[in-house]
Amino acid sequence: MADKTKRIDIRVTENQLLQIDKLAEKVSMNRSEFLISSALNKQISIIKSGKEIAFQLSKIGTNT
């Protein structure tokens, strides 16, 4: 693995930190490993307009 030379600082609530640590422990990772894995292995959907989603949802099931 490459040397980690960059740092990212984020602010979370005490409850959020506890939840993150609990999830990391559950999958046998430290906090840093868990957050990196979570950030890089998740698909993120960008929603440009709620109107487009509403239109698509209204069309579900109308094809016969």
Structure in words:
This protein has about 60 residues and is mainly alpha-helical. It has one domain. The protein is built from 3 helices and no strands.
Mean residue pLDDT: 86
Radius of gyration using CA atoms only: 19 Å
Number of helices: 3
What amount of the residues lies in strands? under 5%
How does the major sheet shape up? none
Order of helical and strand elements: HHH
Total domain modules: 1
Q: How helix-rich are the residues, as a percent range?
A: 40-55%
**How many strand units?**
0
Low-confidence stretches: none
The oligomerization state is single chain
- Class by SSE composition: mainly alpha
> Terminal Cα separation, in Å?
53 Å
Shape: elongated
What's the quick description here?
With 64 residues, the protein is an all-alpha fold. Helix content is 52%, strand content 0%. The protein is built from 3 helices and no strands.
Question: Main attributes?
Answer:
3 helices; 64 residues; 52% helix; elongated; mainly alpha
Task: Please describe the topology of this protein.
Blueprint: H1 14-26, H2 31-40, H3 50-59
Helix pairs in contact: 1-2
